[in-house]
User: Fold this.
Amino acid sequence: MMQPGSLVWFARHELRLAWRDWAWLISGGRRRRLYWGAPGAIVIILLVHALAYLALKPVADFTAPPDQRTLIVIGGTLALYGSIMLSQGMENVTRAFYARGDLDLILSSPAAATRLFAVRLGATAASILGMSLVLTAPVIDALAALGGARWLAAYAVMAALAVAAVAVSAIATTGLFAIIGARRTRLVAQVVAAIVGAGFVICMQFLAILSVGSLSRLAVLRSEAAVSHAPAPGSLAWLPADAAAGNWRALAVVASIACLMLAGAIRFCAPRFAALAQATAAIPDRRRRARRNRSGFRPQSPAQALRGKEWLLLRRDPWLISQSLMQLLYLLPPFVLLWQSFYGGHGTRLLVPVLIMAAGQLAGGLAWLAVSGEDAPDLVGSAPVTPARVWRAKTEAVAGVLVLSFGPAVAALAIIDPVPALVAVIGIAVAAASATLIQFWFRAQARRSLFRRRHVSSRIATFAEAFASITWSGAGAVALVDPRLAVLPGGAALAVLAAAWAISPARQ
Assistant:
């Protein structure tokens, strides 16, 4: 019989929670969706594998030992996924300290908290490994089919990267607790996680802009400059790449280093887990004092109060800040391209579809928070204000964030070339309006803490929002070439909106 409080008992508990979380994420709480979606998932997996095989087959001879160019591509890819894993690890480890759930019950039991922390670190590593393999598994399987079973060692390298990322995340988060305290660690850790997750991608795009004048990361890895500055084959820098290519000695070294890092993180952080978790529970709710003028409270209209409420909630939500910051950080490479164009006089037209796409995605997330993520719907509904004014105030709050986010880029673009700036303004407005309308039509009451899983509430709204942003982005790109041709993608975007309205719960 399994002994309560043992490592195996905690592992079983975490596995059960992970399965429930994954099943809910896929099915949205409806078991029938899970059963009916399995055949479709199998078809998609086979299709992605076929595409990966066809894309890699003409690239190189993968049966031969990897040359320097191949090592550069493999090393760059591993570095990319390593940064993403580190970002996810910091976010998940931070949540492990702050998310209460069953933590209070377990910490008050006779079970050792160190065992729980060790198991949760392993569960976190398995979780981020599974998310990464969704994208990398088809490529690894295609490489194994083209170059032999030795390429399957890449699975072990990905597992080692996940373990190392979780170990670094645990040590970094624990260090933040010691340096800045439990109150500030949640926000700082989430901001650092967003920067780390986007950092490598942004740096690669910066190099691509400065070297080849585009946003293609693969062009940088294949360039002559990368080959000339890269270490020679056999260098320790290529240890993970050699391991992924089937070098068993290199794989043993990489796996050993990852295991030692995880053991060190558990040894260093696990004894502090219970104390830090209790410190987060003891943090009082921070309430901002209302600013008073000489006459007392400042009078506000209902619309101003609603807008202020939405902006206040956006500012003080650390989880939301990190997730929105990630979207905004990806705009930095286009901004650099814009700055370079200011002196070079070319490339500004590439920014328009990027800005339109980013605006649509950000507006959709903010609109979901303002509408479906409303924490006090009964209080807002009982206020002496019409529903139309409520929706208008929420829309204005979303628009205000978008103006602050995209206004500087559009203003700089207008100085360089007014025509792309005008197209960008129109595209950002219609893309943001489309995403906001879709969220209004498919609104459903949910908690703000489910922001990361908002797509589960309505698959139709998710796909409609994505298709609308893509088509409006395409319309902006085409409008710069021939405004008459922009009618085609613009009409497709309007058709997506019409279809979404026709099947939305708001219409019915």
Summary: DSSP finds 21 helices and no strands in the chain.
